[in-house]
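Annex B. Sample input.
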Amino acid sequence: MAGLKRCLSQIFRQSRFNARRIRKRVVFKHGDCNVAHSNVAKRRRKYLQDIFTTLVDAQWRWTLLVFALNFLLSWLLFAVVWWLIAYTHGDLSMERLNGTEPVEPCISNIHGFTSCFLFSIETQHTIGYGGRVTTEECPEAIFIMCVQSITGVMIQAFMVGVVFAKLSRPKKRTQTLLFSRHAVINHRDGVPCLMFRVGDMRKSHIIEAHVRAQLIRHKVTKEGEHLPFFQTELKVGGDGEEDKIFFIWPTTIVHKIDSKSPLYNMSANNLLRERFEIVVILEGVIESTGMTTQARSSYLPSEILWGHRFQSLITFKKDTGEYEVDYALFNNTIEVDTPLCSARELDERRAMYSNEGLGQCRPAPCMFPSARSHSSETLSSLDSLSIDDGHIEMKVPSPIPVMITAPEETPIITLNNGTVKNLENHKEESEDVAVNCPV
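Annex B, continued. Sample output.
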């Protein structure tokens, strides 16, 4: 019994934890916003004032219910009106119905409310079976027939517009726009970058596609004001600069982590402790309809892989002469060697090396990540790293030399014998090259 209670308490705590964790996400992975409105004054009245948008945004079952009720209520309303006209004119009396009193009725072949209901349907939808017709005896009947015809056309136009707008709204186009399951952080051209991948499954493209990203996290201003959901714009693009992309196949979106980036001080260890959310937005014009669409997703710190790179998924098929996109590799990443320190620390180390000289360099712990692991959750790795006699030695198989570069200086290499040579004059083959720096 005690074991059952402990099991139930653990399940309860886990469910509460999962609920809290889900509530912390502002935008879900599929794009819906985790926002609920409450205590809105006159909310129902404002929704009814914009009934068209309300029906378009409503679920299909409510839209179809309103669709059916509009026609049924209009048929019943005008059926009552036709019954009143026939009743006041005396068309429903027994003498008229038996034919003993030869007076022309307002509506021929009307015998009761059921006949009036059928005549209402025939008039509103211009069915015209020919059994019941309006005569010249009652001008009010002619006026009501005109009013019902106009009302029926308006109801049909309104409901067809709602159904068409609901079917063709650009929100459904986002179902075929994909975002990668994880974002990654690695170096590109020597610059730390945050990357995620977007894709489109359809052959009809998104025109004028551009990407945005916002960082949402807690902020305390200089005056002590707490902003729990402060939004900071991240500069993103296909090359990290321009947000517009030529969106014909899956594209990797890049954010350069430089001195202007809000992620400039974040290291791999800080990433595990940070609380933020990166909301990514893809906007563009649907080629087939000309309507603007917007797809959204988000990444939490636990969904950002440090030291990973997206696997290539585009290949050229010689037999067909086409480029093939393998979406089975859309979310796949590979591990790459990436420093664990922040971009600020990396820039400070580079500046120190350039000022103090490259010959006597003291490596920081963040410059040498841990050994490679086969786990997909490993933050970073290094192929060969050993410590011998107070020195850190990193070996790379020849003929690839290890380069140490500084801004606006010629790349140099350090050999095992301590000799420093210019890379342009280095032509040696089949040697193990090592970088030795005192600890």
